[in-house]
Design a protein that fits this description.
heterodimer; A: mainly alpha; B: mainly beta; two-stranded antiparallel sheet; 2 helices; 5% helix
Amino acid sequence: MTVKRAFRVVFAAGLMLGLSACVQIEPWVKPYERDALADPIMAMDTDPVSSSYLQHVFESREGARGGEGAAGGGCGCN
Amino acid sequence: MRIILALILFGLSGVAFANVLPEDRADVMYKLYDGGGATIGGPSVLVRKQVAKDISMVANYYVDTVSSASIDVVTTASPYDEERTQWSVGMDYLRGGTTMSMNYVTSIENDFDANTYALGIQQTLLGQLTTISLNYSYGEDIVMRSDDETFARENIRQQYALGITQIITKHLIAALNIETVTDEGFLNNPYRTVRYVDPNSALGYSYEPELYPSTRTSNAFGLRAKYFLPYRAALEGEYRYFTDTWGIEGHTASIAYTHPWKKWIFNVKYRVHDQTGASFFKDLFSRSEATNFRGRDKELSPLTSNTIRLKASYEFLNDPGGWLKRGAVTASLDHMIVDYEEFRDLRVRGGVVGEEPLYSLDANVLQLWVSFWY
């Protein structure tokens, strides 16, 4: 996939979701039903300082990068 | 490019729902990587603070102190010590239902400088069941050599990321991440070499500098889901598919379980990664300059890595009054085993060239940190 093509996919997804926001959708999980999801153990990234470090470790030891959710930083992978 | 970004921002500005800034917290961590002859330790300090009603600032200071006698070093160079220092600052700005973020990261080593600038936007949609984020970053690396003051090469890295987090049921949340990264410039390690068959050498082989393509584009597609179990515990699964223009194709999967007990939170995770090798990777080339591009970095070899993590967190403060809300101390240990399928252990000598035993890396990653929420 070329960069242009990848960017078009991202652009189309963003535009579709943006436009879909104009349609009123009844939320099937009400705000008062989200106590389990609000529990700290359900956070998608409970410890950013640790997850970004581990991401750096994996990217230094493997050939793959990205797509695992945590934010990255500079490289310094030598 | 500017027009496309503006259109995306326009597309996302359809309906604004309530959004919140990240919570204020500070983390002070010590981390230690020990494996394969390399020891990398140092602190990482992260502080996040809301400075106005709609602005949150974040800063991170990070140091890696490296002492390396890894297999690459002991077979082709000399053990070395070095230090990498990284600073980052960022800002999140909440306007209506949209969070906009900016981030700057700078990393300095004696032979490698990196600067990264990032922009992001996050919007909650569909009755706050969906959160979409778009991120772009631009990075400039300067690759140098500690033994040659005149050597300096540039690498430009751009990253495009789309993330969608979706509440599916009262107990299930999922996230999709799509990320494209492009590199252009000097992409190989200036110290590393490849080996080739050389009948004139006593060993039967010699070394020459590696030579990588000057561009690389990678695509990663990640899917993650987390489920709240009825007795207050969490189960998480993740899968990532990776491919790039160097011929690497990877699959990564993990499963994690989180269990709170009184003031403790325990977490165990298993992660496996499997990849094919880069098209220009070879452990032993048939002759000098045998191919246009050539590399022998073990990370580019076909490999399988398995990691198990044990983590425990203890909450020692909970609403003590004053400005502090919570405090916790956390320790985690990751044990990582990487089995290389084509990278051979050249410390073993005397056998048939090219049939040395395959190399395997055993590493432990220890992290210890204290967190405060305020």
